[in-house]
Structure formats: C-alpha cells, structure tokens
Write a structure and sequence with these properties.
The protein is α+β, with helices and mostly antiparallel strands. About 25% of the residues lie in helices and about 35% in strands. The chain is elongated, with a radius of gyration of 31 Å.
Length: about 200
C-alpha cells in the first residue's frame, strides 16, 4: 500500500492576498485607461478649437485683405475727383465691405459681405455687389455661421499708424488703414486679429 502525503493547495489567507493584489492591479489599470480617455478627449477639444480659431482667422484676414479698393479708372471725372465707389462700413459689432471672395465652385467674385454678431453667433452674410451702391436688406441674404457660442465681437479701426485704436460706433464709413477684430467664444478670448486693409 502506498502512503500519500497531505494534500497540497493554497491556504485561505494566500487566496485572499492574491485576490487583493489582483483587485489593486485592475483598479490601477481601469483608472489609467479612464485618465487616458479623458486626456484624449481634452486634446481633441483643444485641437478642434485651435483649428476653428486658425481657419476663421485666416478667412477673416483674407476677406479684409481682399477688400476692393480704388476708383474706377474709366469713370468720367469732368475735372473733379471721383468718390471711391467701394463700400466699407464698420460698427461696434459688425463689419460690411465689398470684397473679392471665393466660396467654392458656385460662388466667386466681388460681393457685399457682412460679418456680424447675431445672438450668440458670428454670422457671415453676402450678396451681389453693384459698385457705388449700398447693400440690400441683409436678413434675407445667404448666410453661414462662422462661430457658435459667441460672447463678444468688437471692431476697432485706425485711419493711420499714428492714431490710437478707435472702437467703431454706429456706422463708420470709409476705409480705415487697419482693422482689429476682438472675439470671445465659449468662455475664451481669441488672439486679436489685426489686418491692414488694402487702400
């Protein structure tokens, strides 16, 4: 007859210690994954915001730099001066101008353009431009929302480099030399956008 020794196995204390260690490892792993997911979401939000700031700023800069200017060289002067036939009006929270713009294959050319704060959005509106004339009613024109959750949109102008910045009030007519746009959206201030307007 063969004698057998005592059965080999884990004690209850060893099993409890192993389960405790396994629980701690799982908790650290889950916490790490959760932190990683939160960091990824924060990075995506920040990247999206930076892309929005960059694309809108580039568009606004291009729009102001493409403001049409000068007088018609073929206009009949009869010895007098020819008024600038191009349109440029700024106010506290809007900017209107004649600009050469390309929206895609369907739209392109010179348009009367309005950038304005409407409720909590920065809205771009445009209409056909007839030189030397004021625009039609803006509310019925084609539009595109440029920025949502807009809290602040201010327009400042300078007529020359020596002047201080002046906040546009009412309807300032005529082209300034420089335009500064100040925006705040979703609780964050954007970098001021300063553009030299083509004269």
């Amino acid at each position: 007859m063969v004698a057998t020794g005592p059965a080999q196995g884990f004690t209850l204390i060893e099993v409890m210690v192993a389960l405790t260690i396994l629980s701690l490892v799982m908790m650290v792993t889950v916490t790490g994954l959760s932190t990683l997911a939160n960091t990824q979401s924060a990075i995506e939000r920040m990247t999206s915001r930076i892309d929005e700031v960059r694309s809108v700023s580039i568009f606004l800069r291009d729009l102001l730099e493409s403001a049409t200017s000068g007088t018609d060289p073929n206009a009949l002067t009869l010895g007098g001066s020819v008024p600038d036939p191009y349109y440029f009006v700024s106010g506290n929270d809007f900017l209107e101008l004649d600009a050469t713009i390309l929206f895609g294959e369907r739209y392109g050319g010179t348009y009367k353009v309005r950038i304005a704060k409407e409720d909590d959005q920065l809205v771009l509106r445009w209409q056909e431009s007839i030189r030397g004339t004021a625009p039609g009613e803006w509310k019925d024109q084609l539009s595109r929302v440029m920025i949502a959750q807009l809290e602040e949109f201010q327009v400042f102008t300078r007529r020359d480099y020596e002047q201080e910045w002046v906040e546009s009030g009412g309807t300032d007519r005529g082209k300034p030399l420089l335009v500064k746009l100040r925006l705040k959206a979703a609780g964050r201030h954007w970098p001021d956008l300063i553009v030299r307007v083509k004269q």
